[in-house]
Each structure stands twice: as structure tokens, then as C-alpha cells.
């Protein structure tokens, strides 16, 4: 029997992350959609040829013909509807970030455990071979000891572009980009014992963070930094610094647009340069396959996502506190 999916949110990301990959498989069917209004749900159903349009989110969650729910709403709504779906006995896949705070993350972990279901945060970069390659660089000390990680992620969005310019809905540069940064740091060196800080002036429309700087200090002494922006120019880079050189990933989000290769560029002190290329892959296809395989296995508590959300909240709250205290971002 095919897995039957329901979509909460009539969004473009639902098309890229679920509908398109599902059409390439025979063991998965997208059964239903629920949107902010019944009319929007029906329009989405008709456009994409889905069997059912539900009147509201709760109706979809209660649909006994669905075993898995995909949530792509504004960030502040993720936790509520993920929890409701889990309590209804559905597996849940949630667009990053899973939620906005550690209490919500722990509540979702409990709800998943009580129901015996998976609750999965969808971060498209998770599991790409470049992560294992950088881990091996660290373990082998090929470039020496890892000393720092720097990520620069920027999008050039028009003012007022949906929830991203509304902080009460979980918008802002940090919540829009931090999952990619935290996923990379956790995959390479882990987040255990990290101390987080954040800096922003929160000077955008509605007090949103158009730009945000975050930093982690890890017990090993490694410092991981993020520069995030919603006002461009576009950039998506990771740099891993070692005592004997550095490794760079330029435009690591390019496979979000379709099958593209990713290059890891090693620059050794002294001038030697090496490019290690990874085969072309579509992030969304790979993510869908990875998550479908995960859902086929017995559910287990996901401590890694709780760790990521805890760090995310800590950095964001630190920035809010510093801005409130000084009236500006601190250097």
C-alpha cells in the first residue's frame, strides 16, 4: 500500500518538496490539501490533481486516509499543527525550522514518542555527501585542526514578502537561514555544549531582523559564525578553517533548484588548491527519498533536532536582549 500524504499549507515549497518528488515514486501518494481558506485549498487541489481538499487544517489531521502530514506554514504555526498531527497518530514532516523554541521542541518530542510516530524537520542540506567529506577532513586532520566555521547566507527579498517580514509569525533573516548553518555545524562537529550569541538591530519592517549575526563557541574551542540577511545580494557559502588551510563550499544551496554538483574547495597554506566535486543531486528529491526511508523505520526520539532548536532559540533571545539593553546591535 502506498504511503498517503496530506499537505498543510498550499505553498510553493510543498510543490517542490513533496508533490514533485512524490510523482516520481509509486509507493507514495499525496491525498489531500488544507490551506488558510477552503477556497485556496480547492484551487490548489484542482491545479495539482489531488483527490481531496479539506475545509481546514484540523479536518485534514483527522483524515483517516492519511498516514503522514507535511506542514509548510509560517514558522510560528509549525509547532501547533505538528503536535496536532502527531497526537492524531500521523507521521509529521515540518519545513525548517521545526519550531521556534526548546519548550516546543521538547513537547513535539513527547507527542511523537507517546504516539509512536516520527516528527521530522525538513532541512534540504541534511545528509549531502559534502557533510561527510568535511567530517572526514576534521577527523583525519588533513588540513590540521579545525578552528572555525563561517557561514554567509543571504537572500534578496522584496519588502513585505509574506511572513518573513513579520516577526510575530517567526519571520526574519535568522529564522529563515539558521537551520542551514546549524545543520552544517552539527553534522561536522556537533552542537553539544555550545554557547550561543546573536546580534541584530531588528530595524526592518515591523521590527524584523533584516540582518543577523550569530556565533557559537564549542567546548573544543571551535567558533562557528553566521551572517544572515534578507536584503542580499544572494549568497550561500560555508567556510571551514583549519590550522593548515581551509575548505570552502560556494553556493551550497544551488541543488535546491534542481540537479547540480557541489564543489568543496580545499586551499592549503602554501598555495596548493584542490577541488573535490560531488555528483549532481536535487536537494528536494534527495530529501524526500531520505525522509520516506526514515518513515519506514521504527520511530525513535530525535534528540538532534531538539539540540538545534535549543541553540537557535538561545542565539535569537540573546540578540533580542542585547538590542533591548543597548538600543543597537553590539559588536
UniProtKB/TrEMBL annotation:
Keyword check for Transcription: no
Keyword Endoplasmic reticulum: no
Keywords annotated in UniProt: Oxidoreductase
Gene3D superfamilies per record: Dihydrodipicolinate Reductase, domain 2 (3.30.360.10), NAD(P)-binding Rossmann-like Domain (3.40.50.720)
Residue ranges annotated for the GFO/IDH/MocA-like oxidoreductase domain, each copy included: 133-249
Domain Gfo/Idh/MocA-like oxidoreductase N-terminal: 5-119
MF (Gene Ontology): nucleotide binding; oxidoreductase activity
Pfam families hit by this protein: GFO_IDH_MocA (PF01408), GFO_IDH_MocA_C3 (PF22725)
Family, similarity comment: Belongs to the Gfo/Idh/MocA family.
Protein name (database record): Oxidoreductase
Lineage: Bacteria, Bacillati, Actinomycetota, Actinomycetes, Pseudonocardiales
Amino acid at each position: 500500500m502506498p504511503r498517503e500524504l496530506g499537505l498543510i499549507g498550499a505553498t510553493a515549497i510543498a510543490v517542490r518538496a513533496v508533490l514533485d518528488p512524490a510523482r516520481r515514486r509509486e509507493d507514495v501518494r499525496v491525498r489531500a490539501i488544507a490551506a488558510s481558506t477552503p477556497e485556496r485549498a480547492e484551487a490548489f487541489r484542482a491545479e495539482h490533481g489531488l483527490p481531496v481538499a479539506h475545509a481546514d487544517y484540523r479536518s485534514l489531521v483527522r483524515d483517516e486516509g492519511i498516514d503522514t502530514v507535511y506542514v509548510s506554514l509560517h514558522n510560528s504555526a509549525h509547532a501547533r499543527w505538528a503536535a496536532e498531527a502527531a497526537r492524531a497518530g500521523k507521521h509529521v514532516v515540518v519545513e525548517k525550522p521545526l519550531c521556534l523554541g526548546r519548550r516546543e521542541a521538547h513537547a513535539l518530542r513527547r507527542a511523537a514518542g507517546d504516539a509512536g510516530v516520527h516528527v521530522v524537520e525538513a532541512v534540504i542540506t541534511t545528509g549531502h555527501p559534502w557533510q561527510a567529506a568535511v567530517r572526514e577532513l576534521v577527523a583525519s586532520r588533513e588540513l590540521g585542526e579545525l578552528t572555525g566555521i563561517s557561514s554567509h547566507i543571504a537572500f534578496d527579498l522584496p519588502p513585505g514578502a509574506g511572513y518573513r517580514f513579520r516577526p510575530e509569525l517567526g519571520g526574519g533573516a535568522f529564522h529563515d537561514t539558521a537551520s542551514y548553518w546549524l545543520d552544517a555545524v552539527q553534522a561536522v562537529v556537533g552542537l553539544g555544549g555550545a554557547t550561543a550569541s546573536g546580534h541584530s538591530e531588528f530595524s526592518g519592517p515591523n521590527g524584523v531582523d533584516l540582518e543577523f549575526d550569530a556565533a557559537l563557541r564549542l567546548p573544543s574551542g571551535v567558533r562557528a559564525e553566521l551572517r544572515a540577511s534578507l536584503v542580499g545580494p544572494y549568497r550561500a557559502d560555508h567556510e571551514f578553517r583549519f590550522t593548515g588551510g581551509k575548505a570552502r563550499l560556494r553556493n551550497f544551496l544551488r541543488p535546491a533548484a534542481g540537479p547540480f554538483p557541489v564543489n568543496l574547495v580545499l586551499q592549503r597554506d602554501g598555495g596548493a588548491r584542490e577541488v573535490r566535486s560531488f555528483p549532481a543531486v536535487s536537494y528536494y528529491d534527495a530529501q524526500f527519498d531520505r525522509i520516506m526511508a526514515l518513515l519506514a523505520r521504527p520511530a525513535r526520539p530525535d534528540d538532534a533536532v531538539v539540540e538545534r532548536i535549543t541553540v537557535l532559540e538561545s542565539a535569537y533571545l540573546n540578540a533580542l536582549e542585547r538590542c533591548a539593553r543597548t538600543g543597537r546591535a553590539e559588536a
